[in-house]
Amino acid sequence: MRLLKHLYVQVLIGLAAGILVGFLAPDFGVQMKPLGDTFIRLIKMVITLVVFCTVTLGIARMESLKHVGRVGLRTILYFEAVTTVALLIGLVVANVAHPGAGMNIDPKALDAHAVSRYVAEVHAEASSGLLEEIVPNSVIGAFASGNLLQVLLFSVLFGIALSIIARRGRFLSRVIEQSGDALMRIVEMIMRLAPLGAFGAMAFTVGKYGIATLQQLGLLIVCYYATCIVFVVLVLGTISRLAGVSLWALLRYLREELLIVLGTSTTESVLPRLMEKLERLGCPKSIVGLVVPTGYSFNLDGAALYLTMTSLFIAQAMNIHLTLLQQVGLLAALMITSKGGAGVAGAALVALTATLSAHAIIPVAGVTLILGIDRVLNEVRALVNLVGNAVATIVVARWEGAFDYRAAREVLASRGVAVSEGSASPEREADSAVSVGK
């Protein structure tokens, strides 16, 4: 069947099979974990090199270093604004819905060691000390450890250096460009294993945590999922439309990546493909190279929603009343701790633990209340992070006046995505195809 040739259909089948296996044979489902882990490791194998080639080449080809600084500043300003909105929305929803009310948990009855064990496992992959970790001890170490922020810093510096030496660096630029093309072909080969990886990861999640996990603490799960949907539709949808692209068209265009993230619970699994697709959509390579890798640490909208909602959930479950001033203090702390993690599954839990430790009002032991459902929450958290970074790239490209609307229309149309209605002529169609005004 022609339909089975599409990657997103194969991934859907893998997800469905994983859920079925995890539900009917939990022990066997848990044993499928290496399939998902191996797929993610294969992607991580080339991520740092892809980021290096893309960022370095993009900056080297920018018109001036002033342009680099302007794009970087606008990117950070956008990230801070949107993640702050996400934190506020999570805070408001938790105050209105009170998902933890009535649980009457005694902090002394909780196993604080469980938090330490989990955080230690996640911390092996995630960087919680953002400012301390952004500068690597060595360039080779940054690439070997797969630290995206460190690789990004080196790539920016290398790109600036190539820009300065100009003509003398042309040969090296061509080598980097060809290396990047070869790496993307490797990514295409790895992505053929995405259905298998999604199957293994989903079978493990359902097999280990089961349906009972979804029933326990169900109100928090429902509130968080609903809040994420509202945030994507209203906030990101509005931003996307103002930037000139229909959110629905963008989601359909990225459907394969969204399904892979849903299965693997980490946005790192689609980083190279996301960058490539955004370039095809009309975003310049230089902007994609700066915004996407940076967004993986600084623009985690799903994590921002998660942090405020789970913090208040734990406080409510322990009957701890937070005053408005205390909630403002919590928000201020989260504005710092919500940055970092680079797409690693579970990194938000590390940030939550660090925040509660610094806030010193809500007992850190309360994190054990959400350990069992963190994986369930992480699936939608990763999806929101991915959509947020895709929208951010388009916004920054639009802000710079560098977004190619005609390319976007052609790409979305070729993927079967309707981007306009009732266009009377090709010229008018090209102008209105990608939604709202240039």
Q: How would you explain this protein's 3D organization?
A:
- By secondary structure, the protein is mainly alpha-helical.
- The chain has a single domain, classed as Sodium:dicarboxylate symporter (Proton glutamate symport protein, Orthogonal Bundle).
- It has 21 helices and no strands.
- The radius of gyration is 22 Å and the shape is globular.
Topology:
Elements: H1 7-24, H2 26-30, H3 33-60, H4 65-97, H5 112-123, H6 130-133, H7 139-145, H8 148-165, H9 170-191, H10 194-215, H11 218-243, H12 247-253, H13 255-264, H14 271-280, H15 285-298, H16 301-317, H17 324-337, H18 347-359, H19 374-399, H20 405-414, H21 426-432
Q: What is the general shape?
A: globular
Low-confidence segments, ≥5 residues, pLDDT <50?
A: 124-128, 418-433
- Based on CA atoms alone, the radius of gyration comes out at 22 Å
CATH superfamily grouping:
Sodium:dicarboxylate symporter
* Count of helix runs: 21
CATH architecture tag: Orthogonal Bundle
List SSEs in N-to-C order: HHHHHHHHHHHHHHHHHHHHH
Structural class: mainly alpha
Distance between the termini: 40 Å
* Proportion of residues in extended strands: under 5%
- Largest sheet report: none
- CATH class placement: Mainly Alpha
Could you estimate the helical fraction of the residues in percent? over 70%
Overall number of structural domains: 1
Number of strands: 0
* Average pLDDT: 79
What CATH calls the topology is Proton glutamate symport protein
